[in-house]
Every structure is written in C-alpha cells, then in structure tokens.
Design a protein that fits this description.
8 helices
C-alpha cells in the first residue's frame, strides 16, 4: 500500500507534466501575478536551500558509507547523482530556454527543462516515504514548496518542475528497488 501512494504521485506528475506543456506560459503568468512582496524573499530562500540539500545529502551519504551503512549511503548518493545526471543530460538535449518573464533574480544561464531543483528534492521522497514515516509529509511539503518556488521566482515553467519531480521520484524508486532494500 505504501508504494502505491508513491506510484500514484509518480503517474499524476507524468500526466500533469504532459498536460501542462500546453498551458505553461498562462500558468506561469498567473503565478507571477500572485506575487506578494513579503513572500519574494521566502521563496528565494526556499529555492536557494536546495543547493545545500544536495551537498548535505552527499555528505550524509558519505557519512553513512563510513559508518558501514552502505545500503543507506547508496540510496542517498545514488538517488541524488543519478537524478542530477539525467536532468543535466536532458537539459543539454532539450535545451529549452527559461521563461521570458519577470524573474526575481536574473543570473541563470542553463536550460530550463527539466528542473534540477525539483529532481533533487523529489529523488529523496521515496526514501522518506517508505523508510522514515514521521518525515514523509514534512519532506513532501518541502518538495512542493521547492517546486512552487521555481515558478514563483520565474525561472521555470510548470512542466519543467513536474517533469523534474517525475524524474526525481522515478530515480528514487529505482534506486530503492536495485539497492535490494525493503
């Protein structure tokens, strides 16, 4: 039953991602129209925290490796590295330009599709969902906030975020399955 919830989220992200391609600009413009000055900093911080999540995730993975908890280490490091590898390969292949809307910070130069931020946080969701039940809803809410922050600050389309999340969860599930863990 537990994996069914993840598979459901996985499928909803795929379907929503495909549909959102047709409405990306309208959805993004609507979200940007909802901006409130005092939330700008909040969403910039949420978006910026993801870089540290990846670094901390890799450090934690190495820590567990050194503590001889190899399986947990493989889950964390494998999920992060494989999902980011696939995302950056797709960014290179697809080469979709970032939205030409008002961005809260305008220093980005890489491609938009898919969102590496979404993939980075969502790839760890299966681990939290199946192994750390107390953290599952907190992590899911953090993942959603990260995805929304990428839209709010104007650096991604909805389909970028949904496919990044789709890739992340897919890789997380795959790594759990091949790491021979329950």
């Amino acid at each position: 039953m537990e994996k069914r919830g993840l598979v459901g989220i996985f499928l909803v992200l795929l379907i929503a991602g495909v549909i959102s391609f047709f409405f990306d600009m309208q959805i993004l413009q609507y979200i940007i129209s909802l901006r409130v000055g005092y939330l700008d900093l909040f969403f910039l911080i949420i978006s910026g925290v993801v870089k540290y999540v990846v670094v901390i995730g890799l450090i934690v993975g190495v820590y567990f490796f050194l503590k001889k908890e190899i399986k947990l280490s493989i889950k964390i490091i494998g999920s992060l590295l494989v999902s980011l590898g696939i995302v950056y390969l797709l960014k290179f292949i697809v080469d979709r330009s970032r939205p030409m809307v008002l961005q809260l910070f305008n220093t980005l130069s890489d491609a938009s599709f898919p969102s590496a931020h979404a993939a980075s946080v969502f790839c760890l969701l299966p681990l939290f969902w199946l192994k750390y039940r107390r953290m599952r809803w907190i992590w899911l809410m953090f993942c959603v906030l990260v995805g929304f922050s990428r839209l709010y600050i104007g650096v991604h389309y909805l389909s970028d975020v949904l496919f990044g999340a789709f890739i992340g969860i897919g890789i997380g599930l795959f790594v759990l399955k091949i790491s021979c863990l329950d």
